Amino acid sequence: MNTQLLFDSLKIKSIIGSLPESVDHIEVDSRAVQPNTVFFCIKGHTTDGHDHAQSAIEKGATVIVAEKELELDADQVALVVVRNTSRALAHIANHFYQFPSKNMNVIGVTGTNGKTSVTNLIHQLIRRGGEGSALSGTIGFDLDGTLYASANTTSDIITTQRMLVKAREADVSNMVFEVSSHGLIEGRLWGVDFDVVTFTNLTHDHLDFHGTMEHYGYAKGLLFSQLGQDLTKPKYAVLNVDDEWFDQYASMTPFEVISYSMEKPADFFATNIVYLDDRTEFLMHSPEGEFQVETQLLGIFNVSNVLAAIATLYATGESVSSLVERLKEIPPISGRMELVQTSAPLSIYIDYAHTPDAIEKAIQSVMPFKKNRILFLVGTGGNRDKSKRPTMAEKASLADYVVLTTDDPRYESYDSILTDLEKGMKHEQYALIGDREEAVRHIMEIAEPDDIIIFAGKGHEDYQIIENTKYPHSDREIALSVAETRF
Ligand SMILES: CC(=O)N[C@H]1[C@@H](OP(=O)(O)OP(=O)(O)OC[C@H]2O[C@@H](n3ccc(=O)[nH]c3=O)[C@H](O)[C@@H]2O)O[C@H](CO)[C@@H](O)[C@@H]1O[C@H](C)C(=O)N[C@@H](C)C(=O)N[C@H](CCC(=O)O)C(=O)O
């Protein structure tokens, strides 16, 4: 790509050396630099990209974009000094990849709980309607069935642009992003031209990173306050009326608001909800009339997730009746209130709930078909938001028996995690077992016929992180192996 054109529209403080006529790649990680690359020095949380400029040059970088003059040992390299390399990167990356999001239907979904379920639902509903869809999120990057791993839920600017380019090259016209608050604060989506942005809910999480709920809510709000967005075509913000952040996001967005609710009248709202152990049914009121909805997705929060997904695709122009038909066929989402198939006379669910709100809703979801006890296992991560631990246990106390354990203890001791959790317990029917495998075995060993067991926290994950190593771990496999010997 012509280098002059690329840098022309950028406010540059100084250029030392001369820019090559053209460049072939852009990169933020020195380890991935190839010959003739523009390398951006980004200041990170753990290291400063400026310290890696020399190593980028050794790998073939011909242009270094930095926030200060650097002593570089190279003749043929241009140093471009800008005020802020992340902003320069957003600008250049969009120019370099020629604004791939512009002519696509781009959807972003954010919120504390439900992002993965809603993005998956949207992705599957689009594909079942016969169109191509790409999805970027916790599971990685799914380009119409082909899965690529990614380090983050919301990837860095360059990875994001490359995913959009891949989708464009494959003629996939829909791209669905699961958007994290970390990604929004770090500007990982700067320059992405969203058509519909959707909000699930905001509840206590990630305060180790954001500090306060206000800051966390502000971070999520960045997805809706996209004042610089191109409004030459209609754009929509799909917002959850049941969440206390609804008014704030509705007032700050320049997009048309479409609302949804499980509690009050809205553009899309549910009544007559019936929770069954293998499906959920409800009456959905919509701008296109009333529809009897049936889904294989279980639990209270999935009614809200279904409303969010249908409202989002309605915003893109899909017909509600067709969406309701397609929804029936969509299987449960892995690790989201997923019923484990077993011949034991028990109901076992795996759920990703790892916030107080999600724990409460997971337990409430199974109450309608409770015959004996509800046994609940939950752990919390080490070296992450500690303030939510007592409230997680408090909500878990809704169950008849609780096992408190760990969920990726990292470098923190079992005792430290369990002591924080125990502070929130509201009754005496519980056990503290730091080793998660032992904890799963314990709950299965005390289970009786007709009990409902929920393993919370791990969801689709198949590992446990201890120190900095990922060890294979599956709540499901451990539970099934005990069930086989006991029942
Ligand atoms: C705290 C945080 O957000 N960290 C993110 C941040 O990393 P960082 O600031 O530590 O980056 P760094 O490692 O210091 O590197 C700084 C710069 O030097 C460069 N570098 C570094 C080393 C080297 O040898 N050469 C080199 O050039 C790096 O490419 C980078 O440009 O920028 C990286 C690139 O975008 C992210 O991968 C990384 O996410 C880490 C892995 C992480 O764990 N983030 C979590 C907190 C996160 O973002 N989570 C959310 C999901 C939350 C949810 O559950 O909802 C997510 O979106 O994944």
Can you walk through the features of this model?
This protein is of the alpha/beta class and about 475 residues long. It folds into 3 domains: about 5-95, 3-Layer(aba) Sandwich (Udp-n-acetylmuramoylalanyl-d-glutamate--2,6- Diaminopimelate Ligase, Chain: A, domain 1), CATH 3.40.1390; about 105-330, 3-Layer(aba) Sandwich (UDP-N-acetylmuramoyl-L-alanine:D-glutamate ligase), CATH 3.40.1190; about 340-485, Protein-Tyrosine Phosphatase, Chain A, CATH 3.90.190.20. It is about 30% helix and about 25% strand. It is built from 16 helices and 24 strands. It has helices at about 5-10, 55-60, 85-95, 115-130, 155-170, 180-185, 205-210, 215-220, 245-250, 300-315, 320-330, 355-365, 390-395, 415-420, 435-445, 475-485, and strands spanning about 15, 25, 35-40, 60-65, 80, 105-110, 135, 140-145, 145-150, 175-180, 195-200, 235-240, 255-260, 270-275, 280-285, 290-295, 340, 345-350, 375-380, 400-405, 430, 450-455, 465, 470. Helix 4 (about 115-130) crosses helix 10. The longest helix is centred in the middle third of the chain and has 16 residues, at about 300-315. The chain is globular, with a radius of gyration of 24 Å. The relative contact order is 0.08. The mean pLDDT is about 95. Belongs to the MurCDEF family. MurE subfamily. It comes from Jeotgalibacillus soli. Catalyzes the addition of an amino acid to the nucleotide precursor UDP-N-acetylmuramoyl-L-alanyl-D-glutamate (UMAG) in the biosynthesis of bacterial cell-wall peptidoglycan. GO terms for molecular function: ATP binding; magnesium ion binding; tetrahydrofolylpolyglutamate synthase activity. Its EC number is 6.3.2.-.
